[in-house]
Amino acid sequence: MNTLPGHLLDKILFKTDHRALAMLCCTNTSLQSYIQNSSFVSQYNSQIKSSLLHISTFGSHSLSYHHPHDGSRSLKTKKLSTMCHILGFCSGLLLLFIDDRLCVANPLTKKFRFLTLSDPCPQRLVRQENRNQLGLAVNQIDPTTQSFNVVYIFEVERTHETKYGFEINAGMNSWTCSKTTLTCHSSNLDGRMKSPLYLDGSLHWLRNDGSIISFNPKTEKARLIQIEFPHGLTSRTLFAPGGNSLTLVSLMDEFIYVYELKDILVDPKWVLVKQIKNGLIDKNRVNNWYIDAYNGKCLVLRSVYDGVVHVYDLSADKWVIMGSVQGWCDANQDFYLFTPSSSFVVRLDEIVNCGDRSISSLRSIMTLIDGSSPENQLKKTSVEGKEDERILLLEMLLHEQNTNKKRRVV
């Protein structure tokens, strides 16, 4: 391994599909150590592009998507057996609500876990005004293994102050009510937050006054980050992840402003880090556009008039048309820039063939995101052939390396 040029090894591995990469880890201990190195994992994951998922805020029997490798400019739709909601995502896992059942799923590994609900009325969780109370937190145990928690924030009581409580589910069949509570001045959770954001071990909930509630499900520590919104923020604003920071993205007349929360532990403040020229929108029609998604690499805008979805690539400084939302869709749509992950997650089950409608819908979602639908089989077969060639080439290089070592010993 030491004699094989690192840049050549990386070039081969970076172009290798995640499934083939997993096979290499199982068959070669030297490669396993190299592939599971945190530096390699970080570089490999940085090259994985996000898919765009799209579903009605109120739930739907249809889920639309667009794969980054798909050259067509359309959001393809998959019909589901049951009503489905997407409540959030984190580190390649989706938090779903399917047929009155809460579920955490990894579309690439085809694994899932249905969770029990402590709430006697599960539909209350997915109402538009309540759905952002539920959050998904994923912790990386090692380069290939994760664990997760689902956290539900609720008001214990409200007078001139609000007391919050937290319930935690760690993938088991029960919820634990945390002993931790947080009392602070009253303010509602902000609607510009689709779901709480996970960063540095904690979930973060935005409130109407600009303050942020932080809760770490592992240590069960909670705190209020006392901060105000940046000056001049509009209603066309999204609270979103920005790579390694909490981010506010606001649509103005001439620019789209991106703010990052800096010094979150010591002296929290919103800092303007990017201005994107608003070249798509007539300044007199700003209110007819939605900021639907942002992840630090891409920004998604949608027109109310024609439903056209535009995506801005920050690194290329370029706008492209992703596709159009179907005319029958209502205005309340959720878009997710979802980045898949092949990490193994503790306490997830395998998909099995059965007549359960929830399982059927879950299988459809996983197939859709993984891109393994019948219309993509030809493309997939071609890709798999290339992966076999790369694996063969890598094995040949390793064999040559070992032969050279033996010669030097002789």
TrEMBL record:
SUPFAM superfamilies: YVTN repeat-like/Quinoprotein amine dehydrogenase. InterPro entries: F-box-assoc_dom_typ1, Quino_amine_DH_bsu, SCF_F-box_component. It holds the Pfam family FBA_1. Residues 75-231 form the F-box associated beta-propeller type domain. This is F-box associated beta-propeller type 1 domain-containing protein. It comes from Eruca vesicaria subsp. sativa.
